[in-house]
Structure formats: structure tokens, C-alpha cells
Specification:
Helices cover about 40% and strands about 15% of the residues. With about 230 residues, the chain is of the alpha/beta class. Belongs to the DprA/Smf family.
């Protein structure tokens, strides 16, 4: 397992639980603040913030004296999206800061993931929307996250998969490989545009090519030829 760092915003809900879980498990964790370092908002999270100073840190682009204005929370989301390899949305209404962060992360070429929720649950509407629009990969467990980020596992180390020396492609697979070979990484949408396949067709083709060891999935839901 690679070194893992948790980045969030020290807010109520999932944010503070993520920071506290990281601290409890010995992982570094950083909070990106929407105000100066002369205050902690919300103040109830001050003790957690103090712990984070020695096991991660507090980051801000604002001078001391800057109050936690609503607009600052939106602007700081670009920093969280930029310094993280991946963004995982646990809960979100159909509008909110989490969706803004996910959109920015996607524009940066970062991996975006979302945990699905019940249909009709207002606090899962944003996650379901991201998944439905193919803007986020569906995650239901830690194992899903490990696979999406291509993190090595003990079983993978014990039984390394080697690509076929001369793989036999179908005509459809060969078209995908040929397009990817001329690029340093393409998104699913860009690949669909250049190959003429639908996203559903590409999902099956890319899965098979990954299993063959010919194609590698990169952060940001982009693909390239392996090697």
C-alpha cells in the first residue's frame, strides 16, 4: 500500500470524520481552510486541528484576519482538488461544495469517485448524479478505491500479471489500442469520439485490454497503452 494522505476541509460531517480517522490510524491529514490561520472554523474542531499540526497540517491562501466568508469555501475547493490524487464524494445533495470540488478535480485530470446512495435520498442525489453522468467512478468499498487508483496489493505482488508478448486483438480492440498508442492518455469521452464506439462498448473493451496487460487506467479516468 502506498503512503496515503487525507485532504479535506475540517468542516462538519464527512470532513471531520475523515481527519479524525486519519489521525486514529497514523495517517497524515491536511485541512484546507477558508480563512486565516489565526482562527479555526468551526471552533468545535479546534482540538482536532491542533493534532493535525503534528500529523499533517493546516493550509490556507488567506492572510490572518480573513473571516470564513461563504465565497472562500468555494474558492478553496480548487486547492483540495489540486493537491489530491483523487477526490472521493461520500455524500452530497444535488448542489454543494463537494460537487464543485469533483468538477474541478475532473478538469485537473484527477480521479473522481462517488459512493452511491438510495434513490430519493436528498443527501445522495449529488453522488448518484456524478455516477449517472459518468463523471465519477462508483465506489462501494476500500477495495474499489485501491483498484481504481492502481495501488499495489499483497496478492498482486505475489502473483504479478505479465502482459502477453504478442497479444491477439479483435478488430475493435486493435482500433482502441491504435488510437491510444498515438496519445499520452485519453479520457473515455475522447476515446469514444476518436474510435466511434459508445462509452458502454469502450468500458467492455478497455476492461478486456486491461486484463490482457495492454492498457493501463490512470487517475482522472484516462487510459494509455501500457509499457
Amino acid at each position: 500500500m502506498p503512503d496515503v494522505t487525507i485532504v479535506s476541509g475540517l468542516a462538519y460531517g464527512v470532513d471531520i470524520h475523515a481527519h479524525r480517522a486519519a489521525l486514529a490510524n497514523g495517517l497524515p491529514t491536511y485541512a484546507v481552510l477558508a480563512h486565516g490561520l489565526d482562527r479555526i472554523y468551526p471552533s468545535l474542531h479546534r482540538d482536532t486541528a491542533k493534532e493535525m499540526v503534528s500529523q499533517g497540517g493546516l493550509l490556507t491562501e488567506y492572510f490572518s484576519g480573513t473571516v470564513p466568508d461563504k465565497g472562500n469555501f468555494v474558492r478553496r475547493n480548487r486547492i483540495m482538488a489540486g493537491i489530491a490524487e483523487a477526490t472521493l464524494v461520500i455524500e452530497s445533495a444535488d448542489r454543494g461544495g463537494s460537487l464543485i470540488t469533483a468538477t474541478i478535480a475532473s478538469s485537473y485530470g484527477r480521479e473522481v469517485m462517488a459512493v452511491p446512495g438510495r434513490v430519493g435520498d436528498p443527501y445522495s442525489a449529488g453522488c448518484n448524479q456524478l455516477i449517472q453522468r459518468n463523471q465519477a467512478s462508483l465506489v462501494t468499498s476500500a477495495a474499489d478505491l485501491v483498484k481504481l487508483l492502481n495501488w499495489p496489493t499483497e496478492s498482486a505482488k505475489a502473483q504479478p500479471s505479465e502482459p502477453q508478448l504478442f497479444p491477439l486483438y479483435t478488430a475493435e480492440q486493435e482500433r482502441v489500442v491504435d488510437v491510444l498508442a498515438g496519445n499520452d492518455g485519453l479520457s473515455m469521452d475522447a476515446l469514444a469520439l476518436q474510435t466511434g464506439f459508445t462509452v458502454a462498448q469502450l468500458a467492455d473493451l478497455l476492461f478486456d485490454l486491461e486484463e490482457m496487460g495492454s492498457v493501463k487506467r490512470m487517475p482522472g479516468n484516462r487510459y494509455r497503452v501500457k509499457g
